[in-house]
Each structure stands twice: as structure tokens, then as C-alpha cells.
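This part of the workshop introduces the protein records we will be handling. An example says more than a description, so a record of this kind follows.
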Amino acid sequence: MSHPDLRKKFHPGNPASPTTEELRRRKASNFDTRFNSPYGFKEQRFKRGFSARYPGLTFFGLTGLFLGVIFWPFSNNYRSSTRDGKFLAEVRRQREADSGFWDKPLTFQKKKENESTGSTDE
């Protein structure tokens, strides 16, 4: 004894629409389902970042950078307190004073441009 077929029957739709064979052919031609989205497909990126690949180098690099930023003024102060550092600072100050940069550093570039063009306005 066989049981009755209770499955839903789908009748052929609008004859102007593509046939099922045509739909199967289209689907088979575009076999990669990633491209079936209406928005297209963007390949995923699985490359890990630099900090994930080299955690030790990142840690020591950032630590060194931060310590360098914090302690740079102290090393600069030590260097300028030596006899050679004082002499070099005095030579630099004298050179800037001779060029006019020491007195007015903000208008120094403007003065140089005015001298080259021959203008007299400040």
C-alpha cells in the first residue's frame, strides 16, 4: 500500500520568465556562490598585523620610544653642561646672532625674502 503524495505541487510560472533549465544553466555558469551577492564580493584578508606577528619587537620598540621621549631632555641637559657642549652652544648662539636669527626668529625668513626682492616693508 502506498501513501498519498502530500508534497506541495509547484505549477510552471509565468511563461515570460526564464525556464528552469535556463536558470540551472545560469547557476552552473556562475559556480562560485561568493559572487551571487548583489553587493559583489570582497576577498577576505587574513594577514596578521605587524604587532601580532612580532609582539616582542613591538613591545621593546614602543617602550624604547616612550623612554626616549621622556628622558631626552635629561640627556640634552647633560650634554650641554659639559665644557664642549657649552662651547658649541656659544658658537651656535654667536652664529645665529651674526645672521640676525637670534634677535627676531619669527621674522627672520621674511627678512631674507625682502632682502632678495629688494622690498623695504617689514
